[in-house]
Amino acid sequence: MEFVLTVAELGLTLLLIVFSVVVSEAWRRRHSHVSVETATIEDPTSLKQVVRCPQISDPAEKYLSLIVPAFNEEQRLPSALQETMDYLQGRASRDKSFSYEVVIVDDGSVDGTKRVAFDFVRKYTVDNVRVIPLGKNQGKGEAIRKGMLHSRGELLLMLDADGATKVTDLEKLENQILAVAREEHSIRDPTTSKHSDFRIGDVQVCAFGSRAHLEEKAIATRKWYRNFLMKGFHLVVLLAAGSGIRDTQCGFKMFTRAAARRLFTNIHLKRWCFDVELVFLCKRFNIPMLEISVKWSEIPGSKVSMLSIPNMVWELALMSVGYRTGMWKIIHQA
User: Fold this and answer.
1) 3-state secondary structure of 209
2) Which of 269, 283, 288, 310 is most buried (CB neighbours < 10 A)?
3) Has residue 245 got a pLDDT over 70?
4) Residue 170 near residue 254 (C-beta atoms within 8 A)
5) Running DSSP on this structure, what letter comes out for residue 53?
6) Could you give the CA distance from residue 180 to residue 66 in angstroms, rounded to a whole number?
7) Structural domains of the chain, count
8) What range(s) does the Glycosyltransferase 2-like domain occupy (predicted)?
């Protein structure tokens, strides 16, 4: 009997902890939406900072924004960023209507990440490469949220700082989004032709890069306990967000401006499982989700380990309690 009571007390304690965290986060988010969030762009070529960042509610000024969250990425960022800039500049030289920006969000790095980012700002100008410092580490999800909320693109792509996914694969996501957006636009406004001009940023669509096609090979090479833990995590994700996306954790996702505005003004989770919350919110808002296979390779230096899984499960528990109890409010912003 004592054992049963001890387990019951432990379960109650965990529930109280989850409840208190959910309440705290709900309070913080409710008050943070009272005023428009501000962030600072740092420009190493100027004596003063660019104080006001663009807002996601502003009209788009670029065609494509790339948001790169970076935490202690001094070693991996240079090559990945150079490959990205080579692609973007090459595309811009071939297509004069193509415009872009790269937004590097420094998530409280303590190495030379900011120095590396500033080198690219000096090389490519602050109009094309921007650095948003968060001051202290807040988590990958929060870094991406800040980058999304202060970007200027019609299309917004999040991608990891390690270059694990080939940047050229963004065209796969872009083309699928364009096709679905045209279809959605023609349904919304039947009087216009499917091939007529429209602003892609005004239609809510998102595309998730996926490594699911690589899973069979990964299962064959991973240790049995790693497969067991990953399968368990996938089951928890299924219970928390439902089916629809096989690979929620790939760091290569594209959103139209309208979709990003609705999703990232509502997201709560700050670290690894924000991707799962994105899937949950897409379903809540009926935003079309596309899952598209991308080329992916393992890059040494990953910050995700099997020890991250308990933290992920904890975040999913917070999300489930927060939305089910109604403490995490949803802003129905179009």
Assistant:
1) strand
2) 269
3) yes
4) yes
5) P
6) 21
7) 1
8) 65-176
Higher pLDDT, 164 or 32: 164
Q: Residue 165: inside a domain, yes or no?
A: yes
284-325 pLDDT tens trace: 999 999 999 998 877 766 655 566 667 877 888 888 889 888
Check if the beta carbon of residue 240 is closer than 8 Å to that of residue 212: no
CATH at residue 125? 3.90.550.10
Q: For 153-233, where are the E strands, in sequence order?
A: 153-158, 206-210
Mean pLDDT computed over every residue of the chain: 81
Main-chain dihedrals φ then ψ at residue 46, nearest 5 degrees: -125, 155
The string of pLDDT tens digits covering residues 50-93 is 657 899 999 999 999 999 999 999 999 999 999 999 999 999 99
Q: How much is the average pLDDT of 128-136?
A: 94
Confirm whether 68 is domain-assigned: yes
Distance between the two ends of the chain, CA-based, in angstroms?
54
For residue 265, being part of any structural domain is answered with yes
Does residue 12 lie within any of the structural domains? no
Token digits of residue 64: 């494509």
Split at pLDDT 50, 70, 90, the class of 272 is confident
Phi-psi region of 226 (alpha: psi -120 to 50; beta: other; left: phi over 0): alpha
What pLDDT, on the 0 to 100 scale, is given for residue 260?
Answer: 97
Strand pairing class (129-133; 100-106): parallel
For residue 253, the SS3 value is: strand
19: exposed, middle or buried (Cβ count in 10 Å: 0-12, 13-18, 19+)? middle
Phi then psi dihedrals of residue 87, to 5 deg: -65, -50
How far is 75 from 92, CA to CA, in rounded Å?
27
How far apart (Å, rounded) are the C-alpha atoms in residues 18 and 136? 24
Q: What pLDDT score was predicted for residue 188? A: 72
What is the rounded distance in angstroms from the CA atom of residue 180 to the CA atom of residue 168?
A: 20
Domain that holds residue 290: 35-187+200-325
For the beta carbon of residue 285, count every other beta carbon within 10 angstroms. Answer: 16
- Cα torsion 58, 176, 69, 167 to 10°: value is -120
Give the alpha-carbon dihedral of 25, 140, 45, 89, to 10 degrees.
-130
